[in-house]
Each structure stands twice: as C-alpha cells, then as structure tokens.
C-alpha cells in the first residue's frame, strides 16, 4: 500500500516526470526482465525504477539484488527503493548525469533497463540516453526501454540494432518493450524480436 500511495502522490505532483498514472504491471516487468537477460551474473543498471515493480521482476528472473544499480530522481521513491532492496546500489539523481558519472568510474553493465517516460522528453534527451547507455554496456548487450506510444521511444542510429515485443495489453496503458544493441557485424535494418507481432 505504501508503494501505491507514494506512486500516486508523485503522479499528481509531477505527471510528466512520473509518466504514468499507475505502476508498471507484473507482466510488463517480466517482459523487460526477459529482454534484459536478467540472470545470476548479470550486472544491471535501472533508470527510473519508481516503486520497484520492474526491479522485483529482474530479481525473480535471476538477477542478484547486489548486482543492481537503481537510479531514481524522485527522492521519495529512492528512499522506498533503498528500504525495499537494501543490497542494491540506489542513486538519487538525474539519469544522464548519473550515466556520465558511471562512465567516468568505468563501470560496465550487462544491461540497462529504463522505465523513464522518454516520450515526455525532447529528442536531444532521448538520443543522449541512448548514446550514454551504449557507453556503459558490455559488447552486444541491450538497453531495454518500454513505451506506451506507437512510435519507438528512442531515436534510430545506424550503429544500433532495434527489436521490440508485441504490445502488452495487460498493462495499463498497454505498452511495448524495445531493445537497443550496438551492431557487432554489418547487420540489417530494424528487426523485430521473436515475440513481435
């Protein structure tokens, strides 16, 4: 109940930054965990975890709590996450600034999982999020981003391969999970994942 109250309070006070009127569903969280390849050795960076719905699904899928870095701008959510996931590294701050700090630390991740409301931000922010995330990823590993929009949440770059899932109708609003990976070979254009429709 505390998580729901915190989420709705944040939604009312800053709807553009929260980006939703309800927390992500378990089904969306599981889809993101599958796309991220969450497993025991995975080191995962999560942007905008909110109250931790996706975080909990990453752990259920096999990721170890101590291998998670959670970046949350809302200080109420950040405090809630620190209580809920005491072994994770919780950073209260803005995603792009934290990404740059992690790059300077030379910290690398198995995947980046983002629940940021990207369509609420300008093109420059979204392109920077994509580029900075790619700098933090091990070769061939994904940035996973969901959106409610019909359009891709992040801009297309020629060096990045893109896949997506079918629309997840059980989420409210219905959502699509997109994955972005640096091309390791010549590759082809945008592709759809095994579950795409």
Automatic annotation (TrEMBL):
Top-rank taxon, per record: Bacteria
Keyword list, A-Z: Methyltransferase, Transferase
InterPro entries: SAM-dependent_MTases_sf (IPR029063)
A single MF term (Gene Ontology): methyltransferase activity
Biological processes annotated in GO: methylation
Protein name (record): Phosphatidylethanolamine/phosphatidyl-N-methylethanolamine N-methyltransferase
Organism: Aestuariispira insulae
